[in-house]
């Protein structure tokens, strides 16, 4: 009998076809299925799970007695209760590296879109509001030659630094758990404490994973430390930012603007007050969402799954 695999959201169809050769596959691809009896019964039988952002909690694990491996189609794994998973000798994997450049492109794009007010001015043109020359209160701010502070200089943070250094002659500050000598040498990035980074940067880009330590890392005090002319970019996880504090900072002009790819709750509710502000550019968590990158992440997750279920060491094992 073939091992049973539960496919959750956002696994590339071509990859699903390859999985079908080795596994009995049940797909739940398009919306959340928690509480659906068909999902519960697939979970009960599953040897492996592959997908995006399924919350793997103690309760879910209790309902999956045969589970041997959980394969995230993402680099972030804050959806996994890793302690509980490891306690049960279940393997957990993610998809690092394959998304570095794609995510850096998106986050740098968000930074430029926010600085140059691209979505707002696109709307002016499309709504027929381009009657006279642009007014000074519609001008953006420069990106090139400014100071970019990157909080979290991992592989994606480094890919952002590369773009900033080589493409935009930016001066780079960074804060990280440990020094990143490669980024210091290759992109002339300077390590500094968080407060100093916040006070000196024209752009603050948050790229840390979501952990207990980073929850609400950016709160009222941190936004107050930023320059009034500074722009805040969140390319990490919504949990890392106190959204109320961000709202106040934007509303009162304590910071100039923000570009946000991630929210505390996703999809974010329509009445999230942040969405009413003019000086914020938002995206629906699309850092890694290109056709090519989604395929590469699915492919790596499937390799992890196959190796794990065949008793081999998966390429990106987390535990
Ligand atoms: C990741 O890979 O963690 C991206 O943010 C998609 O969730």
From TrEMBL:
Task: Write down the EC number.
Answer: 1.1.1.79, 1.1.1.81
Q: Does the keyword Oxidoreductase apply?
A: yes
Q: Does the keyword Cytoplasm apply?
A: no
Positions of the D-isomer specific 2-hydroxyacid dehydrogenase catalytic domain: 5-319
GO CC terms: cytosol
GO MF, one term, reads: NAD binding
Instruction: Give UniProt keywords alphabetically.
Output: Oxidoreductase
The D-isomer specific 2-hydroxyacid dehydrogenase NAD-binding domain covers 108-287
Its top-level enzyme class, in one word, is: oxidoreductase
The family database entries (Gene3D superfamilies) matched by this protein are listed as: NAD(P)-binding Rossmann-like Domain (3.40.50.720)
The record lists the catalysed reaction(s) as:
(R)-glycerate + NAD(+) = 3-hydroxypyruvate + NADH + H(+); (R)-glycerate + NADP(+) = 3-hydroxypyruvate + NADPH + H(+); glycolate + NADP(+) = glyoxylate + NADPH + H(+)
In terms of domain of life, where is this protein from? Answer: Bacteria
- Family designation: Belongs to the D-isomer specific 2-hydroxyacid dehydrogenase family. GhrB subfamily.
Q: What is this protein called?
A: Glyoxylate/hydroxypyruvate reductase B
């Amino acid at each position: 009998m073939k091992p049973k695999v539960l496919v959750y959201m956002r696994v590339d169809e071509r990859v699903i076809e390859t999985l079908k050769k080795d596994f009995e596959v049940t797909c739940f691809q398009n919306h959340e299925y928690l509480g659906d009896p068909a999902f519960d019964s697939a979970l009960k039988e599953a040897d492996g799970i592959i997908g995006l952002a399924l919350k793997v909690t103690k309760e879910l694990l209790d309902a999956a007695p045969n589970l041997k491996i959980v394969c995230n189609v993402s680099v972030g794994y804050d959806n996994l209760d890793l302690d509980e998973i490891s306690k049960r000798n279940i393997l957990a994997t993610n998809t690092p590296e394959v998304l570095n450049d794609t995510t850096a492109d998106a986050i740098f794009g968000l930074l430029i879109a926010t600085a140059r007010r691209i979505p707002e001015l696109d709307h002016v043109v499309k709504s027929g509001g381009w009657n006279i020359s642009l007014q000074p209160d519609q001008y953006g701010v420069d990106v090139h030659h400014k100071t970019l502070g990157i909080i979290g200089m991992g592989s994606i943070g480094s890919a952002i630094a590369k773009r900033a250094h080589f493409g935009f002659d930016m001066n780079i500050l960074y804060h990280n758990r440990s020094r990143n000598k490669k980024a210091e040498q290759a992109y002339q990035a300077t390590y500094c404490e968080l407060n100093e980074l916040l006070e000196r940067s024209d752009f603050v880009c948050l790229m840390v994973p979501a952990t207990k330590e980073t929850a609400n890392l950016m709160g009222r005090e941190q936004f107050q430390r930023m320059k009034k002319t500074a722009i805040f970019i969140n390319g990490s996880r919504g949990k890392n930012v106190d959204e109320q504090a961000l709202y106040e900072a934007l509303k009162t002009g304590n910071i100039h603007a923000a570009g946000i790819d991630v929210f505390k709750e996703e999809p974010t509710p329509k009445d999230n007050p942040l969405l009413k502000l003019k000086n914020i550019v938002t995206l629906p968590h699309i850092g890694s969402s290109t056709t090519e990158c989604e395929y590469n992440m699915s492919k790596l997750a499937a390799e992890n799954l196959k190796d794990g279920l065949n008793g081999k060491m998966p390429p990106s094992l987390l535990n």
